[in-house]
Design brief:
The complex is a heterodimer of chains A (368) and B (246). Chain A is 71% helix and 2% strand. Chain A has 368 residues and is mostly helical. The two termini of chain A are 32 Å apart. The longest helix of chain B has 15 residues, at 180-194. Chain B starts with 5 loop residues before the first strand and ends with a helix. Classes of the chains: A mainly alpha (368), B alpha/beta (246). Chains A and B meet through α8, α9 and α10 of A and α2, α3 and α4 of B.
Chain lengths: 368, 246
């Protein structure tokens, strides 16, 4: 029971502390936290939501997804569409009806699928519903045909790659190569202003905490136990009368929705969304975060996402050409020496201190 | 209820030209316990696969109860009809506790919609306690199934099948790798189970089959070679020729 308390304290307490140090300490103060750091933290927290989503399906359902950034990016695009509409007539072409890139392409009308996106509520719903529908169709087709293991991983990779190619096309109506950027404000708050940056970061922290609690409730429910059972011993669950494909589909869709929410929070904080978010490498990175933190632990996913991205920020600044090698090396080291990640390392240390039940029984036999 | 519980009618299964089952026919009465023996490759496990829906036969029917053709159904649907299967190698949910293994096996709704909100009820707890007693696992209830001994895993799996409340239990080599004492206890356990359910036991261990004291079916090259009491089949010259003689 200690683990969730520590996790929530770190996420919510850490976010609140950074917010106070940014807003309440004067910029000249030694303890002042810059808005740049706040923005970076918000970004890491979005990645942590994506990592949670990956851990749900990889850690608990055994689905090694190499395409989860697709759901993240779709959520991001939904939010991006709202942010584009919010620009209104303040764009370069000052066209009140169409986003800049549509004017540039010579379009006269807003495509039908852009309708409603001037409301943030519509964008938020789309950020959840679109990934859910894609995951539902994809999962229904693959799990029903009992595609699993490395084949499933390859298909998820193909999925995100196909989406990337599609979003590169101008005719799709999502800004093509350049994507969407130059956002002005979100729900009336100017983007890039200190207060908005802090607010978005805090909202992300709260959403992450809620996502963590929801995921935890899910994996500790009877549903979660069946999921774990099917992950390791699928045939036994089938002969007991369970349909593992249905169980996988449910967690797959929930996970896609989480990833979509993460993406929707990510875009206003980084100020841009473009097709590179669908790049297969992004999805693979998300898997590495989870592996580093500890697969199948939830809190490990959050830890891994934050730590690896801290490392990335530092290393890509100091020695940019080394980053990909470092990431690959990290993955190898974790796979070989830390199969349960950093959380597993901590748990093992704790267990070494506390006597195991077997040791207690043996001691009793000797002394008894 | 009179009539038959399970009726295999001319079942043939071939893999790449090899006939694992060759026009196999077999009738099981309700409440019966049947031992199935035969040399390696006689088709014992394939027969189990066909009954439980893992393998679809090329020809033939498998009728359960009055008129359910099992060859049209898949594993979860057949399990829901009340056919439980114990694997040769103990197959339990290793990361879960003994208690949770039994909880997941308890007869009930198998849909994600139910299990998402399911709470453990007093009735479920009572049923699990009873099975823990039957399988001698009461003091191991909180242990991870992975930490159990081989014999305890076998019993846990049998306990899970009991929790499933099947009408028919298929048991594949339950005493392989067990000590003599565990083998004797397993025979007792199966006889206890047979008081309320039909059982098919596939086994190599002749001493164990003799201890069960039930009707025996000898398979050879995918069809029935001989059938009757253990004394009857062990005196059958064809059985001696292909199986016991070697």
């Amino acid at each position: 029971m200690r683990e969730p308390v520590i996790t929530l304290t770190c996420v919510l307490g850490g976010a609140a502390l950074l917010a106070v140090l940014n807003l309440a300490v004067p910029e000249t103060g030694a303890l002042h936290v810059s808005s740049f750091v706040i923005g970076l933290t918000g970004k890491y927290l979005c990645y942590a939501i994506l990592a949670l989503a990956v851990d749900l399906v990889w850690g608990y359902a055994g689905i090694l997804t190499l395409g989860h950034a697709a759901f993240f990016a779709l959520g991001g695009y939904a939010m991006g569409m709202y942010l584009m509409r919010e620009i209104g007539a303040r764009g370069v072409y000052a066209n009140p009806l169409l986003p800049d890139f549509m004017v540039f392409l010579g379009w006269k009308h807003l495509p039908w699928y852009w309708f409603g996106f001037d409301h943030i509520g519509v964008a938020l719903i789309a950020a959840m519903v679109v990934p859910a529908i894609l995951a539902g169709v994809f999962g229904w087709l693959t799990f029903r045909s009992r595609v699993s293991g490395v084949y499933l991983s390859i298909i998820t990779q193909a999925l995100t790659y196909a989406l990337m190619l599609a979003f590169f096309r101008n005719e799709m109506g999502f800004g093509g190569n350049n994507g969407m950027t130059d956002f002005k404000d979100i729900a009336g708050f100017p983007i890039g202003r200190d207060g908005t940056t802090v607010g978005l970061m805090l909202v992300t922290a709260v959403v992450l905490a809620a996502a963590y609690l929801l995921s935890r409730a899910l994996v500790h429910s009877r549903y979660g136990k069946v999921l774990i059972a099917a992950r390791d011993t699928e045939s036994r669950t089938r002969f007991l009368g369970y349909r593992p494909e249905h169980y996988k589909l449910v967690v797959w869709v929930i996970s896609a929705v989480l990833a979509g929410i993460g993406g929707a929070l990510y875009v206003p904080q980084v100020g841009i969304i473009n097709p590179s978010e669908f790049a297969p490498a992004n999805s693979i990175e998300a898997v590495i975060w989870v592996a580093v933190g500890g697969r199948g632990t939830l809190s490990g996913a959050i830890l891994g996402a934050v730590l690896v991205n801290l490392g990335k920020t530092w290393l890509t600044g100091a020695l940019p050409e080394v980053w990909l090698f470092a990431l690959g090396g990290l993955f190898i080291v974790v796979t070989l020496f830390l199969p349960r990640g950093l959380i597993g390392l901590a748990a093992r240390r704790r267990r070494r201190d506390a006597p195991t039940p077997a040791a207690v029984a043996a001691a009793r036999e000797v002394t008894g | 209820m009179d009539g038959t519980l399970l009726y295999l009618d001319g079942v043939t299964v071939s893999f790449d030209g090899f006939r694992a089952l060759n026009d196999l026919s077999l009738v099981l009465e309700p409440g019966e316990m049947r031992a199935v023996i035969g040399p390696n490759g006689a088709g014992k496990t394939t027969m189990m696969d066909v009954i439980t829906g893992k393998t679809r036969p090329d020809t033939g029917r498998v009728v359960f109860g009055a008129d359910t053709d099992l060859t049209k159904l898949d594993e979860p649907a057949i399990a829901a009809l009340g056919i439980g299967r114990k694997f040769q190698k103990p197959t339990v949910f290793e990361p879960l506790s003994v208690w949770d293994n039994l909880l997941l096996a308890l007869a009930g709704d198998r849909s994600p919609r139910f299990s998402l909100w399911a709470r453990e009820t007093a009735e479920e707890r009572e049923r699990i306690e009873a099975i823990l007693v039957t399988t001698k696992l009461t003091e191991h209830r909180t242990r991870r199934a992975a930490d159990l001994s081989h014999g305890q895993k076998q019993w846990l799996e049998i306990g899970m099948l009991l929790a499933q409340e099947p009408r028919l239990l298929l048991v594949d080599e339950p005493v392989a790798g067990m000590t003599d004492a565990e083998t004797a206890q397993t025979a007792d356990l199966l006889r206890e189970i047979n008081k309320t359910r039909s059982v098919v036991v596939v086994e190599h261990d002749m001493a164990f089959v003799r201890a069960l004291g039930v009707k025996v079916t000898v398979l050879h090259e995918g069809s029935v070679l001989s059938e009757g009491s253990i004394d009857h089949v062990s005196e059958d010259p064809r059985v001696i020729e292909v199986y016991l003689g070697r």
